[in-house]
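Note on ligand handling. Small-molecule inputs were canonicalized before submission; formal charges were left as drawn, and no protonation-state enumeration was performed. Where a ligand contained multiple stereocentres, the stereochemistry in the source SMILES was retained. For S-adenosylmethionine, this procedure yielded the string shown in the input block below.
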Amino acid sequence: MPGQLKPAQGVVWYPLGDGKWVAVAPNRATPEKCLLVNGQEERLLSRISRDGGVSKKDVSASERECIDRWLDPKTMLLEEVQEQPPLESYGDIALSIFREYQSAKAFEGDHDLAAYHQTEIKDPFRQFEEVEMTVSHLYREPHVALDGKSYGARFAQTLIEEGALREGMRILEVGCGTGIFGREFLRAVKETEPEIYRLLKYTFFDLSPVLAQSQKEINREHEKIVSFQAGDAYTHPFEEGAFDLIIANEMIADLPVVKMHRENPSDGEVEIEAWEWSKKLGLDFTDATPEFVLNLGAIKFIERLSGTLAPGGRAFVVEYGSPWSYPVAQVVTNHTEYSIHFGHLLAASERFGLEGTLTGLQDFLGFSGETEVLADLTHLSIFGHLLPFLGVEGEPSRVYTGDMLAQALPSTYGRIENVVFVPLHSLGGIVYPKGFYTLTLVNRG
Ligand SMILES: C[S@@+](CC[C@H](N)C(=O)[O-])C[C@H]1O[C@@H](n2cnc3c(N)ncnc32)[C@H](O)[C@@H]1O
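Structure output:
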């Protein structure tokens, strides 16, 4: 449909009174994202969004001027409707390999985030609001996509349904963020299985003193059954067989990685050690690019888990990554993390006597992919630009449904035009849990 027009993705507009409007375009080239438009221009935008398929020849001369301006890359309020190119799966694979190779090429020196976690995290809540939004943080409150439960509560429910929780269990949570996951998890156990709850021993383990303090404060209500340990999960000498259940939610991407050279390994100490581990574990790198990244820290962490899990015990390790793609760098505001090659972790688990199963996080927690949520660019326009422009406070760190938005912005939401929702399973929704996996490990003893 060449020549036909629609508002560019994420464009919203809002009345300011006196026939004036503000239109917000998330992708505009200029730093100023909010553009003042008059009532006539607003009517044109509304018409194009309502009717779709409006072409330049269907409009008056003065409207055509607006359209020309709004199609300009600096303004980007409108775009021409393009036929979607068919998605080629080999195109996706090529892109993935390109990213893996780029990540390895750009990798220089050491990669160890221990110092970052020990000293750079200053404010627990802001860390997950502004620096690194985890899935568990985005769903920290009951959400319709999780059957009305919070992430931590749904996690507990899943484990209860799997028969993974019983009385007297010693649970270790590694890398506990604000502490909300643990609080929600324990609340759900208390509510559905009070007898199991009463006799649990739940240990929070973290490297960041600031986050550890938040974990303590947030979990006062569970004080009879919780304890706190500080340390680096990568090096900490966990006691053998000390835990029956271990949870590491969105933590292993923080562990060290190593750059590897497939044909001519460097004689650096770190790479030599990584090759020794790889040989011991029988890892196969024939599908790797000439330089690639290895999740050595996560592999060593799995070994530690095998030692500290009691016979018959289970671990649940959640992170983003893929069963077959090599680690890719993810720049998270002020530090870089690496996605996980779960195929390598599964192979390592086997060697360490753990029975590993990989499940998509969506299936593991039963996320409803059909839930309609705010599209990511609309989210950016509203929370990143419109609300600050209007001086209205908003909480960006949520996956909003219409009802949630109406509740959060009672006097603003109903007046914003062109608010787009998409099913959670489409890539338009923010932080879709599709790229996340749960690795379940059972110590066969
Ligand atoms: C991305 S956050 C995830 C927090 C929480 N589990 C969540 O899902 O929101 C990673 C957490 O792991 C902790 N962490 C990172 N590296 C660690 C290490 N080597 N040992 C122990 N904790 C670590 C961080 O301090 C932080 O609490």
